[in-house]
Amino acid sequence: MADQNKSAWAKSIPVKEQFHIMGRLMHYAKPYRKQFIGAIVGALALAGVNIALPYILQVYMDKYLTKDKGTVAIILAFAGLYAAGTLLKALAQFVQSFGFQMGSERGLEDMRRQLFGKLETLGMRYFDQTPAGSIVSRVTNDTSTMSDFWNVWLTILVGSFSLISSFVVMLKWAPRVALMVLAFLPILLFVVWYYNHYSSKVYRHMREKLSELNTKLNESIEGISIIQQFRQEKRIAKEFEDTNEDYLRSRNAMIRTNSLLLGSMINLLYSLALVVVLAAFGLMSMHNFVEAGMVYAFTTYVANFFNPMTNMMDNLTFLQDGVVAGSRMFRIMDNQEYAPQQHKDASETITMGKIEFKHVSFAYDGEHEILHDISFVANPGETVALVGHTGSGKSSIINVMMRFYEFGQGQILIDDKDIRDFPMAELRKKLGLVLQDSFMFYGDISSNIRMFNKDITDEQVEEAAKFVQADSFIEQLDGKYHAKVIEGGSQFSSGQRQLISFARTVVAEPKVLVLDEATANIDTETENLIQEGLRRMRQGRTTIAIAHRLSTIKDADLILVLDAGRIVERGTHDELLAKHGRYYDMYELQTGQASLAQEDERIEENPESQE
Ligand SMILES: Nc1ncnc2c1ncn2[C@@H]1O[C@H](COP(=O)(O)OP(=O)(O)OP(=O)(O)O)[C@@H](O)[C@H]1O
Questions:
Q1: How far is the CA of 106 from the centre of ligand 1 (A)?
Q2: Which of 5, 255, 413, 594 has the most other CB atoms within 10 Å of its CB?
């Protein structure tokens, strides 16, 4: 099914568009034209040597060997000439292949870099809609398909030179025989076309199966803990085996096609052409003297005429694959719509950290509204907490505020200015986001805190770690701040990762903190460290915090209770409890003693009322 989709897609690219894609792909070759010109010169030289070598032998055979005129000096001269020709051939082959590979590999490197750069700028909406596996495939598989695509051109280039040069010489020597050889060209081209038509289906099917195999492997590595926990090993192994079987079957089909058509058909035609050529020379010899060396050289040119076809047949399928891969890569490179854009002349800076939402609405897919009419103000230094059941829209508010997604109606203001008036870099710098589970990058603790920003000194890193009290666990690590971190940071507990991410945020000195409180179970000691870290980070900073445990945001200046994307209640902890509404219910559910807590607080504030 997926295979059908893929080949249907290949077919569905209109011819004009295919040429356009090829044209765009050629642009990547432009900066490396020196290498490509070198390759063309090499290919031309190769074609020349391929003509010259049989010619040298022909002269030697017909002028000296058969006429008994050979002397040692002549033999040595011809041997030297032939050896020089062979050396030149090796050199031309090297120049042609090296130049071409270098040019194409550099072009591919540029392509991968651009693609990766583009992916980094795409909005989250793109990533929501595109499976990670397929993005990885664009950057790795598709760019390596492009390598095959470039090679097709090399094959075509070398093949054409060889075909044309040998035909021209044949035409000069024996025009009629040359035309007989030429008569095979339409048959050859038909075989090439037919093979290409047939094999591209088989080939694509094979690649599809390989991709499925990769996906299965990826899935089983990423989900290994779930697989083991739910004892899915057998199912996964069976699925992998089935896909592997399918892959083998498609490989077999490919091998069958190749064995049948690839070399054999061309060889058959070549032998037929040889028979025709030899018969023609045989007939000619009945009337005129035909020199043996000439026949030898001529048959070598016939071989030069036919040989490139096998290569071309083998490679042509990559042409279409290259266009498909190219079109998919360009779809990423041309993708503009999803990345939230700032105003062109955005240059404001965040100085106070006031945040205001004015009647903001938002839909992830641009259609189904998730946030409705969200309005609130967080004055500089204040804490606004977002609470609500799962799926009520808390993270979505943060997502639009961080400009991961473009919001619909309404306005988001920072320091009373439109959020789009600030350059993205300013927003990323001054809005410090701390997520539930923070990602750690391959490197060490220190680089993960400074986030590879070389302007941040070791002292600042350590200071930040101390500030959020992450230093106590870091000091115990082997290598301390230089302790290795593997991608994802899975060697650390979620509490430790949180503390590192706090340090990472603090060191950047943001004006506004955006927190997604961790729900994971963390031991009491780390929990206390985290709460203390949060308290310290919040000091003097505007904070927008998603809170799952209501006890942690009792001191917030404003609590927004969300339900189905709407703010249904707002106020301070005490005000909301007094309301006996949604917040009260949630609080009671969590503590089981909301009213008691309220009572406690009342007594705390006013001890004499207890009597
Ligand atoms: N990337 C997304 N694409 C489409 N819909 C989404 C996406 N993320 C969230 N939603 C939907 O938006 C709604 C609000 O989700 P959101 O994550 O904001 O809720 P939340 O209150 O943060 O929930 P939780 O407490 O579970 O994190 C949900 O219905 C959810 O299915």
A1: 42
A2: 594
Compute the distance from residue 322 Cα to the ligand 1 centre, in Å. 38
Domain span holding position 377: 368-571
**How far, rounded to the nearest angstrom, does the alpha carbon of residue 182 sit from its chain's CA centroid?**
46
Whether 263 and 387 share a structural domain: no
CB atoms within 10 A of CB 315: 19
d(CA 296, CA 199): 35
Give the pLDDT confidence of 260-311 residue by residue, as tens digits.
777 788 888 889 999 999 999 888 888 888 788 888 888 999 998 888 887 7
**Which residue in the block uniquely carries the two structure tokens 């001890």?**
607
Q: Are residues 280 and 417 in the same domain?
A: no
Domain count, the chain: 2
Altogether, the residues listed in the chain come to a count of: 611
195 in Cβ contact with 262 (< 8 Å): yes
Q: What is the CATH number of the domain that holds 543?
A: 3.40.50.300
Q: Do 137 and 212 lie in a common domain?
A: yes
Question: Are 410 and 284 members of one domain?
Answer: no
The tens digit of pLDDT for each residue in 91-140 reads 999 999 999 999 989 998 998 888 888 887 777 777 777 767 677 777 77
Angle between helices 33-59 and 143-173 (to 10 degrees): 30
Could you tell me if the CB of 97 is within 6 A of ligand 1?
A: no
Query: Could you tell me if residue 459 is inside a domain?
Result: yes
Query: What's the count of helices (H) and strands (E) in the chain, helices before strands?
Result: 23, 12
173 and 295 share one domain: yes
364 lines ligand 1 (CB under 6 A): yes
ipTM: 0.96
